[in-house]
Write a structure and sequence with these properties.
Blueprint lengths: L65 H25 L1
Bound molecules: zinc ion.
Zinc ion (ZN) binds next to loops.
């Protein structure tokens, strides 16, 4: 890339990460990407664009999540174990 005499130049290590979109002309977009996101604000990464992080838009109550099912299984095993111990204590 050429530059006019006297134009300031920022070394690559100090430059903002470029947007990785392509313009309609097919050339790479030259805007800096939004911090923490892959594209610039004109290419779909405006603040507030897109869904919530993670599963937040889909999760209803989490009652069937892997963690919730494992919890129910553990509680059931504890109850059965307690019943077994009480049965054995009676005899
Ligand atoms: Zn862009």
């Amino acid at each position: 890339m050429s530059r006019a005499p006297g134009e300031s130049w920022t070394p690559p290590s100090f430059r903002a990460r470029p947007c990785n979109a392509r313009t309609r002309a097919g050339t790479p977009c030259r805007s800096p990407a939004v911090r923490g996101r892959p594209r610039c604000r004109m290419h779909g990464c405006a603040p507030g664009a897109g869904g919530q992080p993670g599963n937040r838009n889909r999760l209803v109550h989490g009652g069937y999540s892997t963690a919730a099912k494992a919890e129910r299984r553990r509680v059931g095993e504890m109850i059965r174990e307690a019943e077994r111990v009480l049965r054995e204590a009676k005899t």
